[in-house]
Amino acid sequence: MKVIHLKYPYQLNKVDPSTSYSLAVGFFDGVHRGHQAVISAAMEKAEELNIKSAVMTFDPHPSIVLGKSNEKIFYITPLPQKLEILEEMGVDTTFVVQFTSDFARLSPEDFIQYFIRDLNVKHVTAGFDFSFGAFGKGNMDLMKELSLGNFGVTVVEKQVDDGEKISSTRIRKCLQDGDMETVHHLLGRPFQVPGIVVQGDKRGRTIGFPTANIQSMEGCFIPKNGVYAVRVFVQNRLYDGVCNVGFKPTFKNPDEKQLTIEVHILDFEKNIYGEEVKVLWYKRLRDEQKFDGIESLKAQISRDKERTIEYFADK
């Protein structure tokens, strides 16, 4: 997949004028089933018109630039992961538009000129609620009106599951609740956190349950604290594991609030410090809890391990 970074008004002349596109446009955080419907429709139109399929996404999140949130933004799929998923879907080209204050001030007409016409887009596909241009004044009805017949427009209607819209907001709420099975269903795949294995306090190995201490990719949304049945992709293989997300209250001073992600990988004895990994989240087993001693902790970890083995035996 070709990735083209665009920035208004300086870096726009990056497109081969002989290449035409069927474009899916949206922020697409999560690339969930609703997003997949939009992207698949654009890919089908590309095949029908015998042109390249493309996705346009934006970085960073608009609320960071527009000052709508004082809180740090955490993504369901940070940009590198989003690009990986789009490539797996078979998208030919992804345009990553840098969301700046200059870009945010573009009129809907200018957005269409610079980011549709000038990119040689022959067909645009977006969700029913996609907006563009300053203050979100542009909607898909206006997109059709301003196309003047020069490019086609497809609007994908609301994608619903269990009577409720499939949305990034809904998925974030499920992540906050630790409801990984619903997240899996809405994404169409297990939720993933990419990261790297770093040195921990090595306490796990002293109690018979060595763990990989994982530093997540910057900007990743981390599910609710607790213990989970997970799979870990490391060195091109998937392994089952038990993951603890939290502050290790049995060992830590309660005033030391450093979140950790630790995975006990089943049937695994390799040294993997420095390895890039992906943690795939399947089921929340229980809350994180403080134990009155090492033996009760070990007994609980053994139970967690058994539940994880039973869970994956059915998968």
Automatic annotation (TrEMBL):
- Please name the CDD domains in this protein's record: FAD_synthetase_N (cd02064)
GO MF terms here are: ATP binding; FMN adenylyltransferase activity; riboflavin kinase activity
Does the record carry S-adenosyl-L-methionine as a key word?
A: no
- What does the UniProt keyword field contain? ATP-binding, FAD, Flavoprotein, FMN, Kinase, Multifunctional enzyme, Nucleotide-binding, Nucleotidyltransferase, Transferase
> Which pathway does this chain act in?
Cofactor biosynthesis; FAD biosynthesis; FAD from FMN: step 1/1; Cofactor biosynthesis; FMN biosynthesis; FMN from riboflavin (ATP route): step 1/1
EC number(s) on file:
2.7.1.26, 2.7.7.2
Catalytic reactions on record:
riboflavin + ATP = FMN + ADP + H(+); FMN + ATP + H(+) = FAD + diphosphate
Broad class of enzyme this protein falls into: transferase
Kinase among the record's keywords? yes
Family, per entry: Belongs to the ribF family.
Identification of the protein by name? Riboflavin biosynthesis protein
